Amino acid sequence: MILLLTIFALIHGTIGQPAQAPPTSITQSIRDKVISMHNYRRSRLAQGFVPNGVNGMKFLPKGSNIYYLKYNRTLENAAQQYADGCPTTGSSNTTRNDTGENFAIVPSTTMTYYDAVINATKQFWREVKRGAGIIDTTTLLYFSNMSGTLSRFTQMAWASTYEVGCGARICPRNSNTVVVCRYSPRGNIPNTRIYQLGEKCGTCPSNCVTAYNYQGLCNPP
């Protein structure tokens, strides 16, 4: 009987999903990297230095109201919980209330979590360079038909979002690593501006961030 129970436990520990999720994969160095990668790119956007694929690599217009992102451990916990299930797609909006999400599959089970999160963050941002880009650069409105082609970039760039937290899980059964980032307040709201056009920090509700690497970003609430 003991032998049978041991075999059962081994099978379900390697093939099925564990009954109890393993501890978080996210270390402080990963949290710091998430913040630096997101804010550096948002700063480049605020300054008008982000290429837009649709215009033959011309640049997206400057943004005047883009927040600096802070790291949020509650968002991380929610992202980690979802990643622990080794999903193959992102979660439904209806399960997240006012929280946005970016989802990535990294095709490796040997990459470190640190490198997997870097890979995923680059996936999110380069959507605007590799695809059609943002066609209407006059209003910069988000439309529902951007989902699946630009929505990860637009969530990462969304001006009024000011918190992020990420989770990751190696999934041997699927031969990949899942990375999930959650954002608050959520972006990708149809018929709403991704960000406000104008000179960097021009319409910040509060002061501008002074750090050199993050020029043009507004201090968050």
TrEMBL record:
<keyword id="KW-0732">Signal</keyword>
<dbReference type="InterPro" id="IPR018244">
    <property type="entry name" value="Allrgn_V5/Tpx1_CS"/>
</dbReference>
<dbReference type="InterPro" id="IPR014044">
    <property type="entry name" value="CAP_dom"/>
</dbReference>
<dbReference type="Pfam" id="PF00188">
    <property type="entry name" value="CAP"/>
</dbReference>
<dbReference type="InterPro" id="IPR001283">
    <property type="entry name" value="CRISP-related"/>
</dbReference>
<dbReference type="GO" id="GO:0005576">
    <property type="term" value="C:extracellular region"/>
</dbReference>
<dbReference type="InterPro" id="IPR035940">
    <property type="entry name" value="CAP_sf"/>
</dbReference>
<feature type="signal peptide">
    <location>
        <begin position="1"/>
        <end position="16"/>
    </location>
</feature>
<protein>
    <submittedName>
        <fullName>SCP domain-containing protein</fullName>
    </submittedName>
</protein>
<feature type="domain" description="SCP">
    <location>
        <begin position="29"/>
        <end position="191"/>
    </location>
</feature>
<dbReference type="InterPro" id="IPR002413">
    <property type="entry name" value="V5_allergen-like"/>
</dbReference>
